[in-house]
Specification:
The chain is built from ten helices and five strands, in the order H-H-H-H-H-E-H-E-H-E-H-E-H-E-H. The protein is α/β, with parallel strands linked by helices and 207 residues long. Helix 6 (103-114) crosses helix 10 and helix 7 (128-138) crosses helix 8. Bound molecules: CO-5-methoxybenzimidazolylcobamide.
Length: 207
C-alpha cells in the first residue's frame, strides 16, 4: 500500500498520530502537498462521508476522522500557497441569529474542508448583517446557513433577503429544515446531512 493509501486508511480509522506521521513521511518521499491533501486526506474523508450518509458510521466517528484529517492538514498546509488552498472555492458558514446549536454545522464544515473547500466559519448566533459583512470581506462563492430551531428558521429567510444583492449561492440545512422550506425562501440548495452538503456544494460550484 502506498503512503497516501495508508494515510487515507488512517483518516478513516481516525488515527491522528499516524496521519501526522504519514504526512511527514509523504513529504520526505517527495509527494506534493496538494497531492497529499487530495489523494490521502480528502480521499479518506470522502469514504467517511459516504459511510456516514449510509448510516454505517455515526457522528463520533466522523468527528474523530475529521480530527485525524486536520492533523495531516496541519503538516502540509503551511507548505501550500493561498491560491492552492482555495482551489475548490470558499464557503462561508454559520448558525443563524438566535440559534446556538453548532454540532451539525461543525460537521458540515469539516466535511467541506475534507472535500477541499476553504471554509470560513462565523460560529453561532450570526445576524444577517454579520453574514453580509463577512461576504464582502471573504468573497465566498457559497454561504451556508444552519438552524436547529423552528423559531430561528425565519432568520434564514431574513439572511437570504440581506444577501440578495451579493453574487453568492446560499445553501441551508439543519434538523427542522426541509427542501420545501428551502424552495419557499428561494435558497439555492438544501442538504439534509453533511455528506449531502458536499454534493450540493459541488453542484452549486458547477452551476
Ligand atoms: Co437544543 N434543541 N435547544 N440544544 N438540541 C433541539 C434542536 C430540539 C429538537 C430538542 C427537543 O426538544 N427535542 C429542540 C428544538 C425544537 C424545535 O425548535 N422544533 C431544542 C431546543 C428547544 C433547545 C432550547 C430552546 C432548549 C431550552 O433552552 N429550553 C435551547 C436553545 C438554545 C439556542 O439555540 N438559543 C437548546 C440548547 C441546546 C444545547 C446548548 C444544550 C445543545 C447544543 C450544543 C451545541 O450545538 N453546541 C442542544 C442540543 C445538543 C440539541 C439536540 C439534543 C441535538 C442537536 C445536535 O447536535 N444533533 C437536539 C435534539 C435532536 O436533534 N435530537 C436539540 C446532532 C447533529 C449532528 O445533527 O444538528 O441536525 P444536526 O445536523 C445535521 C443535519 O441537520 C445537517 O447536517 C448535520 C450532520 O448530518 N445540517 C446541515 C446541519 N446544519 C446544516 C447546514 C447545511 C447543510 C446541512 O448547509 C449549510
Amino acid at each position: 500500500m502506498s503512503t497516501l493509501q495508508e494515510m487515507a486508511e488512517a483518516v478513516i480509522s481516525g488515527n491522528a498520530k499516524k496521519v501526522k506521521e504519514l504526512a511527514e513521511k509523504a513529504l520526505t518521499e517527495g509527494f506534493a502537498p496538494q497531492g497529499i491533501i487530495n489523494d490521502g486526506l480528502i480521499a479518506g474523508m470522502n469514504v467517511v462521508g459516504v459511510r456516514f450518509k449510509n448510516n454505517e458510521v455515526y457522528v463520533p466517528e466522523v468527528l474523530i476522522a475529521a480530527r485525524a484529517m486536520h492533523a495531516g492538514m496541519d503538516v502540509v498546509k503551511p507548505l501550500l500557497t493561498d491560491s492552492a488552498i482555495q482551489d475548490k472555492g470558499t464557503v462561508l458558514i454559520g448558525t443563524v441569529k438566535g440559534d446556538l446549536h453548532d454540532i451539525g454545522k461543525n460537521l458540515v464544515r469539516m466535511m467541506l474542508e475534507g472535500a477541499g473547500y476553504k471554509v470560513i466559519d462565523l460560529g453561532v448566533d450570526i445576524a444577517p448583517d454579520k453574514f453580509a459583512q463577512a461576504v464582502e470581506e471573504h468573497q465566498p462563492q457559497i454561504v451556508g446557513l444552519s438552524a436547529l430551531l423552528t423559531t430561528t428558521m425565519v432568520q434564514m429567510k431574513n439572511t437570504m433577503e440581506r444577501l440578495k444583492d451579493y453574487p453568492v449561492k446560499v445553501m441551508i440545512g439543519g434538523a427542522p429544515v426541509t427542501q420545501k422550506f428551502a424552495d419557499e425562501i428561494g435558497a439555492d440548495a438544501y442538504a439534509s446531512d453533511a455528506a449531502t452538503a458536499v454534493e450540493k456544494a459541488e453542484q452549486l460550484m458547477a452551476s
